[in-house]
Amino acid sequence: MDDEQRAHRSLWTVTAPPRDFPALPGDVTVDVAIIGGGMAGLTTAWLLKRAGKRVVVLDMHRILSGQTGQTTAHLTEVLDTPYATLRRDFGEKGAQLAASSSRAAIEQIAARVDELGIDCDFQRVPMYRYAETERELAELHHEVTAAREAGLLATFTQDVPLPYPVKGALRVEDQALFHPRKYLLALADRIPGDGSHIFENTRVTEVHDGAPCRVVTDRGTVTAAAVVEATTTPLNRVAMHTKLYPYRTYVVAGPLNGPLEPGQYCDSQEPYHYIRTQQVNGRTYVIVGGEDHKVGTDEDTARRYAALEAYTLRRFPVTDITHRWSGQVIEPADGLAYIGRNTASRHVYVATGFSGTGMTFGTLAGMILSDAILDRQNPFAALYSATRVKPQAGAKDFIQENAEVAFRFVADRLSRPNEHRLADVAPGEGKVLEVAGQKVAVYRAEDGITHAVSPVCTHLGCHVHWNGAERSWDCPCHGGRFSPTGKVLNGPAVKDLPAKKLPT
Question: Which InterPro entries does the UniProt entry name for this protein (predicted)?
Answer without folding.
Answer: FAD-dep_OxRdtase, FAD/NAD-bd_sf, Rieske_2Fe-2S, Rieske_2Fe-2S_sf, Rieske_Fe-S_prot_C, YhfW_C
